[in-house]
Amino acid sequence: MTPDVEGDFVTAAQRVLADDGRAYALQPWQIAYLFALVEGRPPIVPPGCGVGKGWLDARLQERIGVPVVRMLSTSHLAASEVEALRALFAAAWPDGQFTDIDFMHATGGMHWLSQLDGRVVSHASVVERTLYLDQHATRTGYVEAVATAPSAQGRGYGSTVMRSVAEYIRSTFELGALSTGRHSFYERLGWSRWRGPTSVLAGERRIQTDEDHGGILVLVTPTSPALDLDGPITCDWRDGDVW
């Protein structure tokens, strides 16, 4: 980025963040934070700058409606946040397809909550599973419960959440995976469709899951084994939808 463009951006940001006619001098990390939000990357806050982050988030939300993405574990979800997530899922799946078992599948790992004006507008979670690529057991970050409030769709909130999810998976797991019917949304974010046969491991048996064929997408990480997207892929057993 050229100095002129950066200068223009900082000037614009300072104007946007002005409050009651006062101008604020942004610290370097705050400028980097703003750039990350605009470019759809997870913003980084240095240690000890939580108060400054809170102030910046509040100004952004007040002035330009930029959502704040929080990453936290299931155990750190407040009761009000669990209630907000259930409401989000009910709105995203109004036909009741998102069941209590689906909610259970989405818990036990990490969550990404995109919040705007204190309201959760988008969510995704990642849980650890074991997928078998032919015979190779692969530690996998499995994505669940990707949802955006109907009133907030089409604004890039879900894409921002999924970019943050992808960074976490790449730094933590051998592979990322998910099951979806919205292939193009994930493919443009770097996910690849698994073309080979799918199955589930039930005890010592592998049971074909033909209904899921073509619906599994994977994300390559720096520690991924060599992938044959036309080869077999098998998931570990769980109640409800196995994929």
Mean residue pLDDT: 87
Compute the number of strand runs.
10
* C-alpha-based Rg, rounded: 20 Å
Tell me the overall shape: globular
User: How helix-rich are the residues, as a percent range?
Assistant: 25-40%
Distance between the first and last residues' Cα: 42 Å
In this structure, how is the largest beta sheet organized?
A: 10 strands, mixed
Low-confidence stretches: 1-6
Strand content: 25-35%
The run of helices and strands is HHHEHHEEEHEHEEEEE
Structural class comes to alpha+beta
SS summary, helix count: 7
Offer a few descriptive terms:
alpha+beta, 27% strand, 243 residues, ten-stranded mixed beta sheet, globular, 10 strands, 7 helices
Structure description:
It is built from seven helices and ten strands. By secondary structure, the chain is α+β, with helices and mostly antiparallel strands.
